[in-house]
């Protein structure tokens, strides 16, 4: 193995980690979410735009509004997870850029004056941050159940606004009984990587 | 700290890791790239679609074709990096789905029969995988310099085809002199996370 990361960390983050569909009742605390954020906030994005925004669905009332918007297969998982997080892209992220990119405050107007450009950039960069966040959930000793099967327009209307596009919804908690399916196959290196 | 991941691994992957702009001459080997891929291939994507494809630019001839397609600020970095990787989304990823998702081989036709749907899905999921890959580069004790500033249509024409959309280009190697700028600020937890 040519990796500097120790094998236990490799297992925790990737090799032994799984997308889970059942959870124990153990709650996910605000302190855990803070610790995850304080780690993964350092992951790189273009011009440090960091467009990911997160809505934590903690109240029973909010959970009741969310579950009907999930696909049928995702309803019971979302109803039962200790914590559910809505990941969204902030299409107006450029408003924060002067603060986030003090080396080039003009980037806000140089690159991001047009909304369609911002939407494309926020879509890609919030997906990068979603992946860092999934890694961070695992770094906290928790498991993630990311889902894209939901009524995106409905979730945007019910929990977000016109400036925030939902990206995925993630169940978070400790794995429960029969929490994951057998690992699905992955493509071989040579099927993914070519050299020129 | 509420994290299970040990602090050295937190530093390696996030806290002490930086986007780099200079590198030493030490080469990045095929074995290192294999080890990175064999770790990050396990990162989750929707329906295990794993649409990321990677072109490693190793020959001087290919490097000479790539550098002029980079933005001016990225040309010298891309010319000097030990290894340059083009990350792309495979918009025809559904062809591999029956192999990748044996639990639901019908997903290929149920969800992904239309090209625009595939392009959106490949864009988001290849970005997730790009983030896992950046984490993996750091796990290998290397540094990444991801860039979106390049002629996307030109790179697609020169190195890819109509079915593969370039996502980012990543310089890879050991950090050199003055390799990074001071860390830019990050948003506070309360600016990113709301609770309902």
Automatic annotation (TrEMBL), chains A, B:
InterPro entries: Nitroreductase, Nitroreductase-like, Nitroreductase_HadB/RutE, RutE-like
GO molecular function: 3-hydroxypropionate dehydrogenase (NADP+) activity
Top-level class of the enzyme under EC nomenclature: oxidoreductase
Domain of life: Bacteria
Domain called Nitroreductase: residue spans: 16-174
Keywords: Flavoprotein, FMN, NADP, Oxidoreductase
EC number: 1.1.1.298
Pfam family, one: Nitroreductase
Protein name: Malonic semialdehyde reductase
Organism this protein belongs to: Streptomyces niveus
């Amino acid at each position: 193995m040519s990796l500097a990361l120790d094998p236990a960390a490799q297992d925790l983050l990737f090799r032994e980690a799984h997308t889970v569909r059942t959870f124990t009742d153990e709650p996910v605390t605000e302190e855990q979410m803070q610790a995850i954020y304080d780690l993964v906030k350092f992951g790189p994005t273009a011009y440090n735009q960091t467009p990911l925004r997160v809505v934590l669905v903690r109240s029973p009332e909010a959970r009741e509004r969310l579950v009907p918007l999930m696909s049928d297969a995702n309803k019971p998982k979302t109803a039962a997870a200790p914590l559910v997080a809505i990941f969204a892209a902030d299409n107006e992220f450029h408003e924060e850029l002067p603060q986030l990119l003090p080396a080039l405050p003009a980037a806000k107007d140089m690159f991001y004056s047009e909304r369609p450009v911002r939407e494309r950039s926020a879509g890609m960069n919030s997906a990068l941050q979603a992946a860092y966040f999934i890694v961070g959930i695992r770094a906290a000793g928790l498991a993630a159940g990311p889902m894209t099967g939901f009524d995106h327009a409905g979730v945007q209307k019910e929990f977000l606004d016109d400036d925030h596009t939902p990206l995925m919804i993630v169940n978070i908690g400790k794995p429960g009984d029969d929490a994951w399916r057998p690992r699905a196959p992955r493509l071989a290196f040579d099927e993914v990587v070519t050299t020129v």
